[in-house]
From TrEMBL:
InterPro entries: HNH, HNH_nuc. The keyword Hydrolase applies. It comes from the Bacteria. Residues 10-69 form the HNH nuclease domain. Keywords: Endonuclease, Hydrolase, Nuclease. The lineage of its organism: Bacteria, Bacillati, Actinomycetota, Actinomycetes, Micrococcales. GO terms for molecular function: endonuclease activity. It comes from Leucobacter albus. This is HNH endonuclease. Pfam families: HNH.
Length: 88
C-alpha cells in the first residue's frame, strides 16, 4: 500500500505528461516516447512548496529521470543558462 494520494498523484502526473513540457531542470526537451525506465525518460519532479504561495499538495514539474535523480542527491539551485548579451 502506498500513500493515500497515490491516485491523485498519478492523475496529476498523467496531466503533466500530456502537456509535453521540457525538462525544468536542464531545459532540454523530453522524449516522451522513451520507456519510463530510460534515464532520459519523463518523470514528475516534486517541488517543495515554498513558504509563499506553495500548493498544498506541492507542485510537480516535468524532468528527465537522470536530472530528477541527480537533484535528489544534493540540493541544487535551478541553473538557468546565463545568456551573455551579444555585443555588436
Ligand atoms: Zn533534464
Amino acid at each position: 500500500m502506498r500513500g493515500l494520494d497515490d491516485h491523485t498523484y498519478r492523475k496529476r502526473t498523467a496531466a503533466l505528461k500530456a502537456k509535453r513540457h521540457d525538462c525544468w531542470l536542464c531545459g532540454d526537451p523530453i522524449d516522451y516516447t522513451l520507456p519510463w525506465k530510460h534515464k532520459m525518460a519523463f518523470t514528475a519532479d516534486h517541488i517543495q512548496p515554498r513558504s509563499k504561495g506553495g500548493h498544498i499538495y506541492g507542485e510537480i514539474r516535468a524532468a528527465h529521470r537522470s536530472c530528477n535523480s541527480s537533484r535528489s542527491n544534493r540540493v541544487t539551485t535551478v541553473t538557468t543558462a546565463p545568456k551573455t548579451a551579444l555585443r555588436w
